[in-house]
Amino acid sequence: RPLPGTGASRAAGPALALAGVNTPYVVRRLAIDHDGGMWIAGQDDGIVRVVPGGSGGGGGGPGSAGRALTAETLSAAGGMTATLALSSLEDREGNIWIGTVSGLDRLAPANVARADGGEAMVTGIVGDRAHARIFFAGLSGVYRAARDRAPELILRRRSIGVLCGDARRLLAISLDGAFRIDLSPEGAATRVTRVAGPLSVTCAIDAAGDFWTGMDRVYRLQGAALIPAAGQGGETGPTVMLLRPGPAGGLFMSRSLTGLFALNDGRAALLWRPQPEQSIGSITTLTDLGGGVQLLGGARGLARVAGGRGVVLSERDYPFLAGE
């Protein structure tokens, strides 16, 4: 079925009360859009976008304590398929794509449109602002989506829980195993390779185009097999909960309740190890703000890390967390 027209959905109206967004707050996804707005998706009822009030964009974003903030909630009443988000992405046209437990939503500046491809749950989204193509995964397989056409199934596999990659290649991890998908310039699957190795809970592609996954350790995709990474990160330890592309071509890595590391050339540099009173739980999402600053989301809240120091964000730093 084709994508609905922009006039078919209600606009998501402003809501400053932000009910259900109080700390402690289970943060599932964080993102910074091109206007500097911060998107927060949590376990509670609501997806929130926060921008510095009256800024008109310009990348103010988080870290602007003391400035006026404007907040907007997106809910089922405003047209969302669901308010529990599992993945998100901004495309080159400024649309925000959100995969939820009930499907895929496309958020244009003033509307919410459901990209209905028959997928009951969207667990991962991959794309690039330089491309018009969006890829997403769910319970039935991997799809190619675009603003002007219905999503197309390019790989049928059951219960894909992890998806990463870029406009040329994808790595999908499902109950049937892991699969590398090579893509044509048009975004069609040209080759699908089954990957041998352990089930993983996270994956990332680095600047060189290499795939990495995490479970009891960090693994690197070599040929058609996942092998333990060399050096630090490759040793068995607490579950690797998060891998993201990092600075200097490396990776950001977080193991369960151990903090945040920069992994590069087999060496893991500690970026932040929270003290007990600073804990936000296991880090499950990360947005790199540049300049050595990262915004982290965990099972019990938000933190901002810079220069080896972390600050747990609270109602004092960001009044919208308290519903003000």
Main traits of this protein?
0% helix; 28 strands; 324 residues; disordered C terminus
Give the secondary structure arrangement, pairings included.
Blueprint: E1 27-32, E2 38-42, E3 47-52, E4 69-74, E5 85-90, E6 96-100, E7 103-108, E8 111-114, E9 122-127, E10 134-138, E11 141-146, E12 149-156, E13 160-165, E14 169-174, E15 177-183, E16 189-195, E17 202-205, E18 211-214, E19 218-222, E20 225-228, E21 240-245, E22 251-255, E23 259-264, E24 267-272, E25 283-290, E26 293-298, E27 301-306, E28 309-313
Antiparallel strand pairs: 1-2, 2-3, 3-4, 5-6, 6-7, 7-8, 9-10, 10-11, 11-12, 13-14, 14-15, 15-16, 17-18, 18-19, 19-20, 21-22, 22-23, 23-24, 25-26, 26-27, 27-28
Structure overview:
The protein is mostly beta strands and 324 residues long. Helix content is 0%, strand content 49%. The strands form seven sheets. A four-stranded antiparallel beta sheet has the order 1-2-3-4, with no helix packed on it. A hairpin with a 2-residue loop joins strand 14 and strand 15. The radius of gyration is 19 Å and the shape is globular.
Number of helices: 0
Computed Rg: 19 Å
Q: Specify the structural class.
A: mainly beta
| Unreliable residue runs | 1-25, 54-67, 319-324
Q: For the residues shown, what is the average pLDDT?
A: 77
How do the strands of the widest beta sheet line up side by side?
1-2-3-4
How much helix, percentage-wise, in residues? under 10%
User: How big a fraction of the residues is strand?
Assistant: over 45%
Please give the number of β-strands.
28
State the shape: globular
Order of helices and strands: EEEEEEEEEEEEEEEEEEEEEEEEEEEE
Q: Give the distance, in angstroms, between the N- and C-terminal Cα atoms.
A: 41 Å
Biggest sheet, in brief?
4 strands, antiparallel
